[in-house]
Amino acid sequence: MRGTPKTISLRRRLICDLMHASMGVPFVSLARSLNIRPLLEARAGATAPAGWAAMFVKAFALVAKDEPILRTVYTKWPWPALYELPKSVATVAIARVDDGEECVLPQRIAAPEALSLAAIDAEIRRGKTAPIEDVPMFRKIMRATRLPLPLRRLSWAVGLNLGRQRGNWFGTFGVSSVAAYGGGELHPITPGPFVVSYGLVQPDQTIHVVIRWDHRVTDAAPIARVLTRLEQALNTEIAAELRAAGSKPVRAVRT
C-alpha cells in the first residue's frame, strides 16, 4: 500500500524529544478516588471558580511545602544524586491548536503555593489562548526544539540532570488530564519526578486521581500519604480560598 510521507512538525518533534527524555524513568503509579464534597460545595457557591487544573496545581504545591520529597528530583550530573529544590515548580500540559495542528505544550508555574488560585488559573488560561510567542515557557521550549538533534539532546540533558536547572526547564511536578474531553484514567509519561492526573467528578462526589512518580526518588507509602493530604488540601485550603473569593449573589424570591 502506497502512503504519503509527512514531515514531523516542530510540535510533534517536541513530543518526540519528551518521550526520549522519559524512556529511562522507572515510573510507578498509585490511583485513588478522593472524596471532595466540601470542595464541590465551595466551588458551586463561588462567583468565578478556578479551573480544576489550577486547584490541583495549588493543592499539590501546598502538600509539597510540607513534604520535601515532593520537591526532590533525580539527577545524573556530575554523578547520580537526589536534589531537593526550595520551592515547587509546576508544569501544566496545555492542549491547544497551533497552525491548524493539535498539540500539547508545557506551561510553567513557579511557586504555585504562594500564588492565588486566580493567578494560577490566569496563567493556565493564558497558555491556552495567548499566541505561542507571547508565553515565555512556550518560546523557550520551541526555541530548543528548533535546534539540530545533537544540540537538542544536549539541552535536554542539561535541563534534566543539573539540579539548579531542573526547576527552570521541567519543574518538580506536572499536571495533566483529559477530564475536559470526557475523562478517563490517564497515565502520562514525563521525565518526572511526579505527575498528577485527575478524572471527572462522579455522582458520589469523588474524583479519581492518579499520581505517577520516579521510583528512584521515593516509594509507595509516602505517596499514599500524599494522596490523603491532597484530599485534605482540596477540601480545606482550596475550598476556603474559593469561599473567600466571593459567593454567587442570592436572588430575592417574591412571595
Task: Give the C-alpha Rg.
Answer: 19 Å
Largest sheet: 6 strands, mixed
Q: What class do helices, strands and sheet pairing give?
A: alpha/beta
Order of helices and strands: HEHHEEEEHHHHEEEH
Regions with little confidence, pLDDT below 50 for 5+ residues = none
Quick check: average pLDDT? 93
Fraction of residues in β-strands: 15-25%
The coarse silhouette is globular
Strand order of the largest sheet: 1-8-7-6-4-5
Helix count equals 8
Could you estimate the helical fraction of the residues in percent?
Answer: 40-55%
Give the strand tally: 8
Termini gap: 74 Å
Describe, in plain words, how this protein is organized in 3D.
The mean pLDDT is 93. A hairpin with a 5-residue loop joins strand 2 and strand 3. This protein is an alpha/beta fold and 255 residues long. The chain is built from eight helices and eight strands, in the order αβααββββααααβββα. It is globular and about 55 Å long. 41% of the residues lie in helices and 22% in strands. A six-stranded mixed beta sheet has the order 1-8-7-6-4-5, sandwiched between helices. The chain has a two-stranded antiparallel sheet with strand order 2-3. The longest helix is centred in the C-terminal third of the chain and has 25 residues.
